[in-house]
Design brief:
This protein is α/β, with parallel strands linked by helices and 228 residues long. It is built from ten helices and five strands, in the order H-E-H-E-H-E-H-H-E-H-E-H-H-H-H. The chain has two domains: 130 residues, Rossmann fold (3-Layer(aba) Sandwich), CATH 3.40.50.300; 67 residues, Helicase, Ruva Protein, domain 3. The radius of gyration is 20 Å and the shape is elongated.
C-alpha cells in the first residue's frame, strides 16, 4: 500500500476558559483557580499528571490575571526582582522540574523562597504548576521546604469516563479532525485511562490517517490500533 508523505505540523490547542473541560477529577482545582486572588498565603500550587490540564488551566488564569510568566533564568538572585512588578501576579510552571530536574541549579531553591517572600510582601499572587504537590519534592533548604508544605494545593486527577471522552474529542478537534461518537466510545474501551494517552492516540491516529489519505472511521481505527 502506498502512503502519502505527511508534514508533522503541531496542532494548536484551544486554551480558552470555555475550552477547559470540567469534571469531578478537576472540579476542585478549577474552583481554587477561580477563587483568585483569595488564595491562602497568596500562593497556589496546581499539581497533576502529564496532560491533565495544568498548562491549560494556568493559561486561563494567566489571561484573566495578566500574570507574568517566570522563566527559569529569572530564578537567579540578581534577576529575580526584575521579574516582579509591584505585586503583579506571577506564573511559575513545571516547578518540580525546575527544582529537581536536569535544569535544577543550586541557587533555584533560595530564589524560589525569595520569590514567595516578595510576592507576599508586595501583595502579589503566585501560581506554581508541577506534576506532584510541592510538599513531596526533595528540597534541601529547610525554610523553602516548610513554605512549600504550607502551600494550598489544587490537585488535578486522571480523567473519568466523561472527561476522557471529551478530551479525545477535543484533541481531534484541535487537529481539525472530525470523528464519530462510535470512534470515541471504541477508543475509550481500549486506550490507557489517562489524559496523556488520549492526546497521544489522537495524534497517532491523525498522523496515520493523513498518511493513508483516509478519514478516521471506526474500521480504520480498529485496523490502526492493531498496528500501533
Amino acid at each position: 500500500m502506498t502512503t502519502q508523505l505527511t508534514l508533522d505540523l503541531p496542532a494548536r490547542p484551544a486554551l480558552g476558559r470555555t475550552d477547559f473541560l470540567v469534571s469531578p477529577s478537576n472540579r476542585d482545582a478549577v474552583a481554587w483557580v477561580d477563587a483568585w486572588p483569595e488564595w491562602p498565603g497568596r500562593c497556589l500550587a496546581l499539581a497533576g499528571p502529564p496532560s491533565s490540564g495544568k498548562s491549560h488551566l494556568a493559561a486561563v488564569w494567566q489571561a484573566r490575571s495578566a500574570a507574568k510568566p517566570l522563566p527559569v533564568e529569572a530564578l537567579q538572585g540578581a534577576e529575580l526582582p526584575k521579574a516582579l512588578n509591584a505585586g503583579s501576579p506571577i506564573l511559575a510552571e513545571d516547578i518540580d522540574r525546575v527544582l529537581t530536574g536536569p535544569e535544577a541549579e543550586a541557587g533555584h531553591e533560595e530564589a524560589l523562597l525569595h520569590l514567595i517572600n516578595l510576592v507576599q510582601q508586595q501583595g502579589g499572587t503566585l501560581l506554581l504548576t508541577g506534576r506532584i504537590p510541592p510538599a513531596r519534592l526533595s528540597i534541601a533548604l529547610p525554610d523553602l521546604s516548610s513554605r512549600l508544605r504550607a502551600l494550598q494545593v489544587a490537585q488535578l486527577g486522571e480523567p473519568d469516563d466523561d472527561l476522557l471522552a471529551a478530551l479525545l474529542a477535543k484533541h481531534f478537534a484541535d487537529r481539525q479532525v472530525q470523528v464519530t461518537q462510535q470512534v470515541i466510545a471504541y477508543l475509550l474501551r481500549r486506550i490507557e485511562r489517562s489524559a496523556a494517552a488520549a492526546q497521544a492516540v489522537a495524534e497517532q491516529l491523525d498522523r496515520e490517517a493523513l498518511a493513508r489519505q483516509k478519514p478516521i472511521t471506526l474500521p480504520l481505527v480498529r485496523s490502526l490500533l492493531d498496528e500501533l
